Amino acid sequence: MKMTHKRILMLNYEYPPLGVDYFIDKGSIRNKEYVSKYGLQRLAKGFFDLIVISFWQKFSARPIHVFGGLGLLLGISGAMLGGFMGMERLFFGKSLSDRPLFLLAVLMVIIGVQFVVSGILADIMLKVYYGQNQRKNYLIERVVE
């Protein structure tokens, strides 16, 4: 058994630094069996990190493409669903008040409009940011004269 000598300076606000001597018996330390920390959870987190980085690189300079696309998808889907239910109301006399699908259609249209407006506002904010700071959101590879 090896004995190791360590010296620690204990820093405290109330007392001056005190030197403390202690010994560690190396023979009594048992190391735990190695367990890999790389598993499915870490693999999934890495995959999602790659998706976020890829998404950020593609759409950080043009948020209207993301928000506008989602907004149009939701808005058109909601309008089609609402139109279908309106046709059922007109031609078959089905009530809209007892069907939650109609509320879903209205909600989809409203959220779609909000997404489009958010995309427009984000695009305006990017243009103001790059305009004020005179920064460019692109790199010039070479200048051809």
From TrEMBL:
Transmembrane regions: 64-81, 101-126
GO molecular function: transferase activity
An example Gene Ontology CC term for this record: plasma membrane
Keywords in alphabetical order: Membrane, Transferase, Transmembrane, Transmembrane helix
InterPro entries for this protein: Glycosyltransferase_2 (IPR050256)
Name of the protein described by the UniProt record: Glycosyltransferase group 2 family protein
Organism: Candidatus Methanoperedens nitratireducens
Organism lineage: Archaea, Methanobacteriati, Methanobacteriota, Stenosarchaea group, Methanomicrobia
